[in-house]
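COURSE: Structural Biology Practicum
ASSIGNMENT: Worksheet 4, Part C
STUDENT ID: 0417
INSTRUCTIONS: Below are two proteins. For each, the amino acid sequence is given first, followed by its C-alpha cell string. Answer the questions at the end about the second protein only.

PROTEIN I
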Amino acid sequence: MKRIDPIQINWKPAKNKVIPVYKQIIQYVCDRVASGEWVIGARLPSQRTMAKLFNVNRSTISIAIDELTSYGIISGKSGAGTQIVSNTWALMLPTKPSWKKLISSGYFQENNYRLQQINQLEFEPNIARLGTGELDLRLFPQKMWTEVLQKMSTEITSWGYAEPLGILELREAIVEHMRQFGINVSTENILVTSGALQALQLIASCMLKEGSTVFTEAPTYLKSLQMFQSAGLKLNGITMDHDGLEYWKIKNQIKNSESSILYTIPTNQNPTGITMSDIRRKELMDFCIKNRLPIIEDGAYQELCFDNDQFKPLKSIDDNGMVMYLGSASKTLAPGLRIGWVIASKPVIQRLGDAKMQMDYGASSLSQLVFAEFLKSGKYSSYLVDLKKTLKKRRDNALECLTKYFSQLATWNKPIGGFYIWLTFNESIEVDDIFERALKKKILLNPGDIYDFKHNRSIRISFAYLECDEFKESIKKLALLLMDK
C-alpha cells in the first residue's frame, strides 16, 4: 500500500478580509487538494488541532468541515478520522453556479451552415439518410409499447410534478439496470434528464468555469462540441488509434490549463465507431487519477455491443468519484422519449437537480413511468436482444457493400456495435463536393468536418437507419457518383 504523507498546515486565514474566515478555510483545503498536495486518503488533523493551527474558534472549523463534507470532498470514517475522499468533481461545488449564464437567451451558439442544412434535410420526404444518428423508426417495439401504455392507463392516478431528481420508480429501475455493467449506485446518485444532451448542458453550465478546457476525442459527438463552446469552454481534440483515445497526448497540455476535464465516448464512439480496449480504459483511468482530471463518460451506445462483447464502463472502475456517467434511451429505444440520466456523487447530483428544476421542473412524467415499466418488466432487455441482432445484420451488410463498391475509393473501420462506420476517402476526393452532388440523388451525407477540429476527408456512415436493401442501393448510387467525376 502506498504511504500517504501526513497533512501539513502552515497557513492562517486573514481575519480582516470581507470573505468569511470559514470560507477562506474551505478554499484553502480545496486549493491543497486540487494541487495534489493533499491526496485522496490523506487524513486531516482533529478539529481541535486545526482550530489551533488556523488560530480560529473550533466552531469555525466545524462549519468549514460540515460544508466540505456536504460537497463530498472530505468524509469522516469510523476509526480513520476525517479524510480526503474526492479531488475532482467535488472541488467544483464550492463555486456557486452562474444561473444567469444558464438561463440567458443568448446561451446557444448558432449551428454552422452545413449542420443547419442537414437538420432541415433530415425531414425531407424520400431522402436516404446515410449518416443520421437516429434509429430506424420501423424498429420501434410497437407491440411492447402498446402493452405498457395499456398498463399505465390503469395505474397512473395523478399527473403531479415529479421529484427533483426524477421519479423514484425510474431511478430504482436504472439502479438495477446499471448493475449489469458493474456500476453499483443508489437512487441518490441518479438524476433523470430530458435526454443526455440536457445532462451535458447542466454540467457545462453548473459545474465548469468559463475558460475551462474540455479534452475530448477528435472527432467526437457534434452536439457536445456545440454545448461546450456555447458555455464558453475551450475544446482540445485528442486523436485516437484502434484502441481509443491516445490519452498520453493530454499530458503536456494539461499543465497549461487552469481547469480541465475529459469528455469521452469509450464504447461505440460517435462518430467513428471505435471502442476503447479494456487495457486502454485502465491506463486512461490511472492517468486521470494521477493528473486529477475528472471525466464525463457518455454511455449512449454502451448497450449496443454485438456478439455479447461487453466493455466495462469507466464508471465501473471508478472508486473516487472521478467519473460522471451519462446514460440515455434515445439511441436504443426512441429519441422522442427524451429520457437520459446522470450518475455521479450525491452532492453533484443535488446541484445538477437544483439547476434542472429551475430550467424545466422535471422531465416528462409519462416518459419516465413508461421507461421505468420497460426496464422493470424485462421488455427492454428482450427488445435489446432482437435490436442488436438486427443492427449486427445491417452492419455486416454495410461492410459487404463498402467492400464491393468502395475498396478503391476509401478506407473504413469495423465497429463492434453501435450505429456508425467512419469512412475516409482517398486524397483525390473532396467531401463538400460529394455532399452537394449526393443531395441531387436524394442521398444525405454527414461530412466528417462537423465532428472534428480540422478539415478531413471523412463521412459518418450509419447502418442503423436504412434497411439492408435501402442501404445497398444508396451506397451503390454514391459509388457511381464518385466514379463519374
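PROTEIN II
(use this one for the questions)
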Amino acid sequence: MQLALYEKYDLRLPRYTSYPTAPHFHAGVDGKVFEGWLGELDPKQPLSLYLHVPYCEEMCWFCGCNTKITKHYKPISTYVAALLDEIENTLGKLPGDKRFSVSHIHFGGGSPTILKPDDLRAIMAAIRTRLDILDDAELAIEMDPRTTTDDLIDAMIECGFTRASIGIQDFNENVQTAVNRIQSFDLVRDVIAKLRDRGIRGINVDLIYGLPFQTVETLQKTVDQTVALCPDRLSVFGYAHVPWMKKHQQLIPTEALPDTQERWAQYEEIQNRLAKLGYVAVGLDHFAHRDDSMALALKNGLLHRNFQGYTTDRAEALIGFGPSAISSLPQGYAQNDPALARWQRSVETGTCAIEKGVAVSSDDILRRSIINELMCNLAVDLGKICAEHGTSADRFAPEIDRIRAMHVDDIAKVNGDNIILTELGRPLVRAVCAAFDTYLDPEHGRHSQAV
C-alpha cells in the first residue's frame, strides 16, 4: 500500500465497539436509569456477562486497560467481596417473575488469572445462583501465562470454562524487555497444552504490532511460533500509544517505535502470513480457523462486535461488572465508575455503580447496524437495513457520496445501495464507518490510529 494512503486514511478514529462510542457517554445515564433499563429486559432473551478483574502482578507498559498492580492478595480479596455484592445487587434488579439464562460469560482484565481458585469458584457460584447458564454457553477467560497455576486451571474446568484467551503480544526478547512483558515460548506452550489436556479446546491468542523494536522480520518469527501452538483464533492489534491517557506508556522508548510506513508493513506481513498458514481474516483484526465458530459466523453473516471486539455472541443485553465495565442493553450503554474506590462505595450502598452512559435513539440504532455490518462483513446493503428500520437509504446520500470518493483509491466501492470494501480497504474500515458517525469530531477526538 502506498504511503500516500497511510497519510490520507490512517486517522485517529474510534474502534467502533459501540455506537455512539464511549467518548460520547455522559452523566445523564446514572445508576437509577440503568436500574430502570434492567427492569425492562425480556427474560426470554439470554444475557451476556462481562466481569472485569482490575489487578495485575506487573504492569505491561503497552497496556491500555483499567488495572492496578499488586503483589499482595488482600486488595484482590476485598475486590472479590465487592464484586460478589455487585452481582447480587445488579442481577436483583432484573424482572423477578422468571429466571434469566446466560449464553456467554467473559472474564477480562487486568489479569483474571490473578484470582485464587476458590474466588473464581465463588464468582461463578454467585452467577449460577441467580441465572441459568445454557448448556451451549461459552465461558471465556483472559489469561496471563505467567500467573496461571495448575490449581486455577482445575477451578476453570470445575466452573465449566470452554475458552481461554492467552496474551502473547510478541515472542522477541528485545521487544518483551522494551514493554516489560517477559514470557518465554515454552511457558506459553506449556499453559496451552495443560488447558487442552484438561478439556478446554477453545484457544485465542493476542498479538500486537507497532511495538518498540519490532520489525517485519521479528514479527515473521513470532507469527510462525504462534501458529505452531495451533490457536483457534488470533486477535492482532496495532499498539495504541496514548501516554496522555496511560502514564506508564511514557516508559516505552518512543524512538524505538516503528513509523507509520513500518506499522503498515508489519500489518500487511501478519495478514499475508496468517492467510498462507490457513487462517481466515475476520473483520479488521481477528483471524480464525476455517472450521472455528467465528469463521462460520462470518460465513453465515452472524458475526457481531461488542466491547470485547469480534464475537459470536448474539445476546441483546450484555451486563458488565467491575470498575469501568460497560453494559450494552437495548436501551443504551452504561459504564461503571472506573475508579476502584468510588465503584466499591457505590456497590456497598446497594446501588448500581454507573458513572455515565448514553441512551440510543432510533437513528443511533440504525447507524449502529450499518457500522456493525461494515466492521464485521466489510460490506453493507443500505437498502435492506433501512427497510428493516422503516426508512429509505436516500437519507444517507451525503454518506454515500463520501464513500464514493474513496473509490478512486480502491478503498471501497458503491453499487446502488451496496457498499463493499476492497481487501486494500480492510485495514481502513474504520475510516469508512466514520462516514456514518454523526458524533465524530476528528479534529478534537483522541482516539488511536486507524491501523
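ANSWER KEY EXCERPT:
Q1: The radius of gyration is 21 Å.
Q2: Residues 74-91 form the longest helix (18 residues).
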